[in-house]
Structure formats: structure tokens, C-alpha cells
Amino acid sequence: MKPVLKVEGLKKYFPIKSLLRTIAWVKAVDGITLEIMSGETFGLVGESGCGKTTTGRTILRLIEPTEGKIIFKGKDVMSLKGKDLLWFRRNAQIMFQDPYSSLNPRQTVFNIIMEPVRFHGIEVNDPEEFVVKLLESVGLNEMHLYRYPHEFSGGQRQRIALARLMALKPEFIVLDEPTSALDVSVQANILNTLKELQSEYGFTYLFISHDLGVVKYMSHRIGVMYLGKLVEVGPSDRIFENPLHPYTQMLLSAIPVPDPELAQELKAKRKMVKGEPPSPINPPAGCRFHPRCPFAKDVCRKEEPPLVEVERDHYVACWLYAKS
Amino acid sequence: MPEPILEIKDLSVYFYTYAGVVKAIEKVSFDVYRGETLALVGETGCGKSVTSRAITKLIESPGKIVSGQVIYHRNDGSTVDLLKLNEEEIREIRGNEIAYIFQDPHSSLDPLYTIGYQIAESMEVHGRIKNIKEGIPKVISILREVLLPDPESRVKNYPHELSGGMKQRVVIGTGIANNPKILIADEPTTALDVTVQAQILELLNELKRKYNATVILITHNLGVVAETAQRVIVMYAGKVAEIGTVEQIFKNPLHPYTKGLLKAVPNPMIKVERLEAIPGTVPNLITPPGGCRFHPRCPFAKEICRKKVPELKEIEDGHFVACNLY
């Protein structure tokens, strides 16, 4: 498989200003390297504030990165201009978390979906038929063509957002918590639709979520983020069967499982994480997880652990597995 | 036979809005047993929060409790219908014998007062301490109980100086300050991360054991239910769909809605090839569907479901379902 997207050493720092001077930096994303293969779903998980959304947006150049390389289909995204940048925008799309703020309330569904098509100058013979086909592929129909966003439920709005980005036939889609504003019964519907569309059109997804159950269901490979860094990357099954990083282990054991027997069993074995994630303004030196880690050694406090391959395609950034 | 501490009978709450009368909950009946953790589950708008608030008449205009009884069995054996009490009388119970923990710790604390003041205030109101200053040592011991680090100095902190998890600990502290008999926790961990959620649930469990309290836990997260509750009430569109023990609900769900809900949740510990979704969306409660409210989305719906409102029936010991199939 070919990588669609390569990210090397991606960093994004946001300044904190006081009296027009920068007094500190929020290190939202601090050196991320990853590759996403054609047709796969790469899941990015982590708790709030770990930088997963910033990563997704920076990759699309919706936020300019502070440092780092983004290669999309062999082209350096940072140096794209004019026509080439338009080509990138058309092929790399995003679906946002909140379906209540991502659709223009004054436009009909038809206009919402046609706007990017017109903007990119894509020739369509019969716009109405074109939009109806898109709506049908996401589980809506022509009845919905001239309605406004407020007439739809949250789940239906996410479907409209999906139809809008599919109109451009992108190769790569960032799904930023697409179901976290929805109820579970509706969530299952959207997730299934996303999977069906992927197997039909071969989309490549970057799936961002804090819900580990959802990420497992959707992803082929998973990256776990903690305070702006990737701490573990590997095939979905391996991450769940054999989590290596102490943070991943604790994250997994903290999920309440919807099965009473299993839940009691897992609860007894649970490894509780102490405290809460520290602020990304002055992250801890060395390994960022060390203040909460039960296995922290001297080296963890001083040096940052490198990402090393422990088993095939399974990487971890932890001094328990790396040699200093 | 477990002994009830609360009996909720035919409770209905309507909201009188410009768009029409929203029948938020209709004829909801169930018992809460002394010392148990009871989970109220359901999706957005199913009426679980409204039910929990109506127990102590915590319904604001345009909402109105239109009918029902909430019989509270006191420790001394006397009973009282909470809905018949006037505002003064119910205030003596609310926050004292029956306390709440709400979802959003950021909005349940007043940003202008220190956390010590806010916990002490709830004790002063209920006459546990004479004045706020005198209560501070007590507050510190409460903060220690909710495992807030460094309580002696934290007591002087304002809410903005604390993280979300710490704030929720303070809110729990306010909840237990008066040694309540019933603790109603409305989505206490929804605003928190999973690692912090695990800490808070653990804390709630411990406090419940220590104070011998009864907990009503409102949540949409079935994982949280499986882990913390003994009994479950599943609500759908303002009605009770199913009542049972955790084992009954998870191993032998009877209502098609409960079955659908359980299949729609991705379980992170099991490889799921395909989630089964429930078609359609939650109905509008101004004009809810006639008959069984779930029938438009139900794969087993029959003619009768369109017409007859199903009654709660006991199928096995302690396992009730409101469905025309049974």
C-alpha cells in the first residue's frame, strides 16, 4: 500500500500574549510523525487537550504549522500555491464535530452541497440529480433537497455534511469526532455509513475521537496521543490486545465496558491513573507522562523517549522499551 | 424483599412552550430501594434528567409537574409525599436528605466565591454549622474525603483555579456535606475524560458505602451503568421502557429498544464487525407517536403497537417491561 499522507516532525505552538508580548507557548502538537496508507482508517485517540484536533487541522493546513513537513501524495503541502493548493483542498476534506455550526443556516441543502462544487468549477450536467444521488448515498433523499439545516436532527445534519464533502470526491478525509454530539443509536448509523462509503469509494480516513470503543470499531491502525505527542502507534487489534505504553494501558483499563460481568472483572484489575493531564504550556520534561506513571525511572524525568518499533508495525515511545 | 426509600407513582411533567405542550415525562412509575445504586438510562430527551429533578420539585417554569406522587420513606419509618410539600418544606429536604450532583462542574460552582465558602454555605443553610467561618475545618475534612489534593490550601481557591476533575470533586463534596440519604448524580462524569471518569466513579462508590446512601445515577453511558449500578431503568421518549437488575438488562434485555441500544454501543473489548443501528430518530414530544412510542423505529412493531399504550408488566422476578410483545 502507498502512503497518501506523510507527516514528519509536525509542531504547532500557540502564543500566549500579555501586553502584546508573547509570554509563553502552548505546545499543542509537539513533534508528530506518521504515515497514513491509501484506503485505511487511522484512528487518533487521546483525552481532551492532547492535541488531536489541532493535529487534524494542521495536517489540512487549516492552521499553519510551526514546524514540520506534510507530504500529500508526494507533494509538499506547505509549499503549495494557487492551483496546486486548490487541488489539495479538493482532495483533502474535513468533517467537523458539531453539526449545528458546520452548516450555513441560511442555505438550502441543495446550495450547501453545490457550493464547493461550483467553487472548484466541477462540471455537472444536472445539478439536481447530482445532489440527489449524493443524498441517497448517505441515507437521505430528494425530499430533503430544498430544506434548511434547522429542519434536520443532529444525525441528519452530519449526513448532509458528509454529502457535501463527498461531492468533491476527495481521497483523504479528516473525521474530527463526527459522532460525539450524537446519541448512541444515531452514532451507530453514521459509523456504518462511513464504513460503507470507504469500502465503496476507497476513502482514506483520519478518525479523531476520544471514545476508544468507536475508534476500535472504525480504525485499521491507531495512534495514541498524550500532551501533543504520539506515545504509541500500531494496528488496532494489537493496541487493544497488547498495549505497551503505560498511558495506553491505563486509558484502556479506564473505559467502562457495557457488560456487567466483564466490567466487574476489569474493574478489579484496573490500574488507576493518578491525577489529571498537566498543562501543555509547560509540559513536564523528559517523558511527558512521567508524573503520572507508576513505572517512572530516572531517565524518564530527563530525556524524551524515542518512538521505537517493539513488534511488527507497533511503535511505542517509552523508556521501558527503548535503550537510552 | 428490598425496602423502598422512594416510590415514584404516575409522575408526569409537561413543559408549556410556544411551540406546544412538551410531554417530557408521562406516567413514570418506579421504586428506588434503600442502599442501592439505581441507573436511569436513555438518550437525549428521554426524560431521565426531568424525572430526577421532579423528585424534589426542581422543575422551573415553563415546566410543571402535572400529576404523580413521590413517596419518601424516612429512616424513622414515616412517609411523606414530596410533591405535596410547599417550597419551604421541600428546601429542607433538598440538598440535605436528598442531594444532587449535576453534569457540568463548571456551571454548578459560583465563580465569585471560594470553594470552601460554597461547601460551608450548604451546611449553614441546613443548620449543620452556625456560621461559615466555623465550618471551614469541617469543609477541609470533606475535601479530604473527596480526595482533593492539599485540602488546607485548596479550600481558599476559586473554581477557576481548579481543573474539571477537581471541580467535580468539590461538587460531590457539596453533595455529601449534609450526609444525604439519597444522592442523585445527573451525568456526573460526562464532562470529564475517561481516566478522570474512572476516578470519580470510584469515589462515588466509596462514599456511598461509607455514608450508606442510596444513589440514583443518570447517564447515557451503558459502560458506566454496567460498572456501577445494581438496577437499571431504561427510559424512552418520556416513558419507562424496562426495569431490571443489571444482569437482567444486559444479559436478557426484553424491550426492543433496550436490545437495540445494547447492540449500538461499540464495546472496546470485543471485535465487532458491524454495529446494529436503530433506524430513525427520537420522536418529538409535542406530538409523540400514538400507542407505543417506540413503534415507528421498532423492527417488531405490530398493528396493536400503533394503538395500545403498553403497560409495565413483570416478566420475571423484578424484571419489568412495557412492550406489547409480552
Tell me the overall shape of chain A.
Answer: globular
- Broad shape of chain B: globular
Question: Which band does the percent of strand residues of chain A land in?
Answer: 25-35%
Biggest interface reads: A-B, 44 and 48 residues
CATH topology of chain A: Rossmann fold
The CATH architecture of chain A is 3-Layer(aba) Sandwich
Give the termini distance of chain B in whole angstroms: 25 Å
Structural class of chain A: alpha/beta
* Uncertain runs of chain A: none
What count of structural domains of chain B?
1
Helix and strand composition category of chain B: alpha/beta
* CATH fold annotation of chain B: Rossmann fold
Biggest sheet details of chain B? 8 strands, mixed
CATH architecture of chain B: 3-Layer(aba) Sandwich
Largest sheet of chain A: 8 strands, mixed
Strand order of the largest sheet of chain B: 6-7-8-3-9-10-12-11
**Regions of chain B with pLDDT < 50 over 5+ consecutive residues?**
none
Q: What's the quaternary structure here?
A: heterodimer
Search tags:
heterodimer; A: 324 residues; alpha/beta; Rossmann fold; eight-stranded mixed beta sheet; 11 helices; globular; B: 326 residues; 12 strands; 31% helix
Produce the secondary structure layout.
The complex is a heterodimer of chains A (324) and B (326).
Chain A: E1 3-18, E2 21-37, E3 41-45, H1 52-59, E4 67-72, E5 75-76, H2 82-91, E6 92-95, H3 109-119, H4 127-137, H5 154-166, E7 172-176, H6 184-201, E8 204-209, H7 212-218, E9 221-226, E10 229-235, H8 236-241, H9 246-254, H10 260-269, H11 298-302, E11 307-311, E12 314-317
Parallel strand pairs in A: 3-8, 3-9, 6-7, 7-8
Antiparallel strand pairs in A: 1-2, 1-4, 4-5, 9-10, 10-12, 11-12
Chain B: E1 4-17, E2 20-33, E3 37-41, H1 48-54, E4 63-73, E5 79-81, H2 87-93, E6 98-101, H3 115-125, H4 132-145, H5 151-154, H6 164-176, E7 182-186, H7 194-211, E8 214-219, H8 222-228, E9 231-236, E10 239-245, H9 246-251, H10 256-264, H11 303-307, E11 313-316, E12 319-321
Parallel strand pairs in B: 3-8, 3-9, 6-7, 7-8
Antiparallel strand pairs in B: 1-2, 1-4, 4-5, 9-10, 10-12, 11-12
